[in-house]
Amino acid sequence: MNIAEVLMELCSLNGPSGFEGPVAARVREMLGEFMDETWIDTMGNVIGVRRCGIPNARKLLLDAHIDEIGLVVTGAEEGFLRFASIGGLDVRMLPASGVEILTDPPRYGVIATLPPHVLKKEDTAGVMGIEDLFIDVGLTQEEAEAAVPLGTPGVLSCGVRSIDEQMMVGKAFDDRAGFVAILRAVELLAYVKLDFDLFVMASVQEEVGVRGAAPGVYAVAPDWSFVVDVDFAKTPDTKPFEVRAALGGGVIISSGPNMSPSLTKLAIETAKQMEIKHQLSVEPGGNSGTNARAIQISREGVATALLGIPLRYMHSPRELVSLEDIECTARLLCEMTKRVGGDTI
Question: What is the model's pTM?
Answer without folding.
Answer: 0.94
